[in-house]
Design brief:
Layout: H1 9-17, E1 20-26, E2 29-35, H2 40-49
Antiparallel strand pairs: 1-2
């Protein structure tokens, strides 16, 4: 019996490890935007903005 390959983990891992992930299709292009806040100060400011 063959094992079924696990797929889709890249999407899951990206969403879990990034602060913001968005996708859009515009002008016949696929646009994936990922954001990661690298400093603690910026992360705290971002958290307050989202409240």
């Amino acid at each position: 019996m063959e094992e079924t390959p696990i797929v889709g983990l890249g999407i899951f891992m990206t969403k879990e490890s990034m602060d913001d992930v968005s996708y859009e299709y515009r002008d016949n292009l696929n646009i994936l935007t990922i954001k990661k806040i690298l400093s603690k100060q910026n992360k705290m400011e971002q958290d307050h903005t989202n409240e």
